[in-house]
Amino acid sequence: MGDQIQFIVEKLNQEPFRKNYNLISFDSLEPLQLLQLLSDVLGEIDPKHAVDIREELPEQTAKRMLSLLGILKYKPPGGVSDLSAFRQGLVTGSKPVIHPVLHWLLQRTSELKKRAYLARFLVKLEVPAEFLQDDTVADINKQYEELMEAFKNLHKEHEQLKTSGLSTAEIRRDISAMEEEKDQLGKRVERLKKRVETVQNHQRMLEIARQLRLEKEREESLAQQKQEQKSQLFHAEQRLQRAQVQLKEMQHVVADSKPESLMKKLEEEINFNSYLVTEKIPRELESKKTSVYFLQKVVAEPAMTQADLTALESEINEVNAQMNQLIEKRMMKYEPTDSKFSMYRQQASIISRKKEAKAEELQAAKEEMSSLERQMEQKTSQAHELEGSEVLTEDEFKQFVNKLRSKNTLYKKKRLEIAEITAEYGILQRTEELLRQRHEAIQQQLQAIEEKKGISGYSYTQEELERVSAVKSEMDEVKGQTLDNMSEMVKKLNAMVAEKKASLAPVIKELRQLRQKCQELTQECDEKKIQYDSCAAGLETNRSALEQGVKGLLEECAQEESNYRYINCMKRTLEIQLQRAKDEMKAYVSPDPQERRRAVREQYTRIILEQENLGKKLREKQKVVRESHAPNMKQMKMWQDFEQLMECKRECFLKQQNQAAIGQVIQEGGKDRLVL
Description:
This protein is mostly helical. 87% of the residues lie in helices and 0% in strands. It has helices spanning 2-13, 23-27, 31-45, 58-71, 83-92, 95-107, 109-122, 135-162, 168-197, 202-255, 259-300, 306-332, 336-387, 394-453, 458-589, 593-597, 600-627, 629-675.
């Protein structure tokens, strides 16, 4: 603990505090002075907290300090049970609470400054989910989150640049090197100008070179523009594909819809929105307001002790007992008419609860559907970017799966057939190899017999003649068959043409009738379409009028809500001021000295007495200093004279030593001459 206080005193005596404390003066600080010192340290970390605590209420001071300590992630010593003691000690300025906080803050001031600076921009403002249903609020919240992410990235880049090692000396060296290079380039340009001036038509050549450079720059800019336009065209094509997909989906949805179904859907949506506006949202808003009111009331009250909690619990138990007694009395006075009304009330309450539950389920389903639609759009855009093809719809995907299954079964059948053919091919290959071996053996035997008989090559010649004759006979048969086939094919074609003409004659007649009927149906369809368009336009105008009415009601509701909040806030402030005045009057009039000491007048009287005592002590100290000033100045003059005297003696002693050393050197030189 002593090392901790020593560290705090050393840090407070340095810049930027310069408090000039010692251990005794720091330890003798009053609770109010300790709180002001803690507020000064917090103000050095975050300039918004550099305030005089005498100008604000103790509850506001404690709330402000606790909020900043929470942002700075200070963890008080002890467990969760000690948090209330920590808050109470912070309010009263207790030394065991304030000293560890000061030690923790002064240990890491620079780090906490950075954290407090970042907290101004990175502490996220929580917006209730029901407010995010409004498109304007949702857009503003999204922009707020995007700006927060941009700030994070910029801060990271700033920190990286600070730690990248670039110093001012290096930048100056780079600037000087670039200036030298600029001078060298200027001299080189001058030399080239002088050299070019001797050439004929140098002005025209310079102009042509300048135009060439401009054209090259223009070519580069045009190429860049071309690349940008290509990328824009690619993105536009992607957007067009997505729009076409959405159009197909909307057409698929609207294909089977009718005016009656659209009207029914709009009525359901209007009923649901009107229920939200008139019943659900005002009720939730009222509950939120009551909860906020109670929370503000709890925050405004001073810190509660265990005795206060036990008293409140006993009061709650008494109220519950009274409620039970009243319920029993009412049950004793039970009447049949009341039973009927109670039954109806129960049924109405059950229906209202079911209605609220279904409305919440519908709202959750709508939110889930919107999130799933956003995910589907993201996945569709990703698929377009990766493959560039359209995404299949549900029906197309089912057809594709069925087709794939049929192909899979066909593939399995073909695979079995291929396996059977492969096995048969292996058997036939083995048979062929055995027959080839037998044929070669027979041929060798035949050649041996022919050589014995003296007619070698006879069998080969015989085989060749038989093969040629067989080929000739086959060719003749093929030619004859080809001619026969051609004549038969011509006959068949003529017969087929005649049959088709005969069979198509009634079909053509029927087709003419169908074409006429198609024209009539097309005309009727156009008329129905015109009627549908007119009906849809009327419904659209009605819907827009209803939307405008709902919008006006919402704006009126928002205006009334803001007025209610303003009046409620003014009422609350007036109640607080009135309560403070009553508490002050009660404490001032109370005979209890402990209660009277809590009054603001008594506190200020006590502070004035303390300051008067402090001024009295300082005046006595000033008097003592004035009385001892002349003797002290005289003593200081004597010490200065004594210092000058000693300095003079030291200089005389040094001169005497130098003269003695010179005389000794002269005597030694005389002795050396005598020896020579």
